[in-house]
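Quick question about two entries, pasted in order.
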Amino acid sequence: MTPEETAFWRPPASGLTALILAGSRGPGDPLAVYAGVSHKALIEVDGIPMIERVVAALAAVAGITRIVISIELPELIAALPGIQAAANGIPIEVLKSAASPSRSVGEALDHRGTPLLVTTADHALLQAEWVGYFLDRIPADADAAAALANKAAILEAVPHTARTYLRFADDHYSGCNLFLFATPAAAGAVRFWREVEAERKRPWRMLHRLGLVFALRYAIGQLPLSAAITRLGELSGTCAAVVKMPFGRAAVDVDKPADLDLVRRLLAQDRLKNQA
């Protein structure tokens, strides 16, 4: 084995479990209402429910041997006629989602252990190539890793899209809804995530925990991404890592009606190109 091969994380021989977070905002979810369906995960994009698109993308990734779907209404998955075909023979397990994304991930870790790949049901553009790129570039010593794309890559792939960016000294990044919890120590990252969710209405408490200097450097755009990852690793007791993705579309999820319109338009354009 070469040094290059040993520098990166590799899935175990027993295979990798992928978790899809498919919880909704409850009855009356604005996006589901906009799309005319009972649940966000059932929204069709180019004729296929988003959850089936994500399952199909994960099923095409080498090394993934089980797919777990976390949703508050498990019966919705059982009623989908195309879900088993999308999985292409890979077993699907459905868990009832918890009260928040972090708690759902925590329960999945308790149930399935690590390593655990995590994405979301609204990642309607997800491609197996993106997941493979992410997994192939995670450092071998990482307990937890996340995928990010920079602003230039996103705007090149999807001009004029409105995304939320993390503003660091070296670049602006947006999350790609791809995470790996590689080792049992990654439970610390989930605990920290849960604390962030709990303090979202009291941000001063989180700023106090992060440290005033750290928060100030970020606020004025002088904090490098590497320093932020190191600090978050210290706070969560993990070796944290990020993978910078060259795929701008990987940062596009379906979180509001404008996102749905955008994704539908992109896939319709792709279909027309393929037919030409």
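Here is the second entry:
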Amino acid sequence: MTPEEETELQAIGNEVTAALQSPWEPRCVATAFATHMGGDVSFTMQMWIDLELFRSPLLQGLLPESFDEAKANADAFGLEPATAEDAVIVMHVLRDTIQRAFDMALPMEPPSADDATALDQSADGFGQWLPLYAFLVGQAAMSPSEAKAMEVGEAYALMAAIRRNQGWHATGTAYALRGIEIAEDAP
């Protein structure tokens, strides 16, 4: 290992240690629950359901292929792009907003994996938004309208926090470490 690589690795280690010992909430959690300042667009559960209904490409990180399709996607957010150029800008903002919300999903395992029934969730037919919506209504005790109005990033963070309080542990990258850039060529 070169001295430069060693210095970089030590800096990353210090950043990880500081993030794990910080008294502050992880930035990604604060961002998910923050009021949207500066004109950020909201992505609620209801918007996800509406986009899913017409199989929006935004839900897969893709952009609509036509101006009419872009207008339909923008409509789910209460936006009305006037020109094709406006639609392109709006679609990029919406795609990024949706991706930030989906990035809040945190894989979790129950406290005792031996007692849990292993389910093939990819084959159960529920999709992704319905289990999260069911969690909000069934476990977080929200009304259906409250659940539909909740920001998707907030919903994922709330689910992870409730599971943590129940003794589950994270199996994905912890929130405290998500803002740390780690070089891909690091050992």
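Reply: The mean pLDDT is 84. The CA atoms of residues 56 and 69 lie 8 Å apart. Hope that helps.
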